[in-house]
Design a protein that fits this description.
The protein is mainly α. It folds into two domains: 83 residues, no CATH class; 95 residues. The chain is built from six helices and no strands. It is globular and about 55 Å long. The two termini are 31 Å apart. The mean pLDDT is 90.
């Protein structure tokens, strides 16, 4: 199966959108940033659905899709912290979880030469909460009648992110002990 297929092209386009998204934020074109974020979010749903329906799943796509998601989220959280739209502690929580989980799975691969990383329900909920917070923040910046995110929103994202990170650590340790 060719790695050059529609789902992978859509994922690649999502990766290319990230610098344009950053540029829009830096130059205070929040309307463009919102539009680019929506395109990225829709393309994330579209590429996965299309890969499953057309049976065009590839190892490259399985690698690029979460890379695109994480790149967009980490970039968003860093910039949103710089602009004081989200608390710095939340950005540290999101990035720390990703770094710890990635390093853990890499160490597991080095020691056992195999890893089976499957997203968990709580992991998907954490990513969804992060995406919703970013989208809501962009909406509140673009539309004055939408209030800025409240502290409870930050805490929901933090709790889901932390719990999912702990779950991945547990799963990694369990997998390591089985080897």
């Amino acid at each position: 199966m060719s790695v050059v297929n529609i789902p992978n092209i859509i994922t690649f386009i999502r990766i290319v959108i990230i610098p344009a998204f950053v540029t829009a934020l830096i130059y205070k074109r929040y309307d463009y940033a919102l539009l680019l974020f929506i395109i990225a979010a829709v393309s994330d749903t579209l590429d996965g659905l299309m890969a499953r329906v057309t049976k065009q799943k590839t190892k490259l796509g399985a690698f690029l899709d979460p890379l695109a998601d994480k790149s967009l989220l980490v970039t968003s959280f860093i910039l949103f912290s710089v602009y004081d739209w989200v608390p710095t502690w939340l950005t540290i929580t999101v990035i720390s979880r990703d770094v710890i989980v990635t390093l853990g799975w890499f160490l597991l691969y080095l020691t056992s030469h195999s890893i089976k990383v499957e997203p968990s329900l709580i992991g998907k909920a954490a990513i969804a909460s992060q995406l919703i917070l970013i989208a809501y923040t962009l909406l509140s910046i673009n539309f004055n009648n939408i209030p800025r995110p409240d502290n409870w929103m930050f805490w929901i994202v933090a709790v889901l992110t932390t719990v999912s990170g702990l779950q991945y650590i547990y799963r990694g340790l369990k997998q390591a002990s089985e080897k």
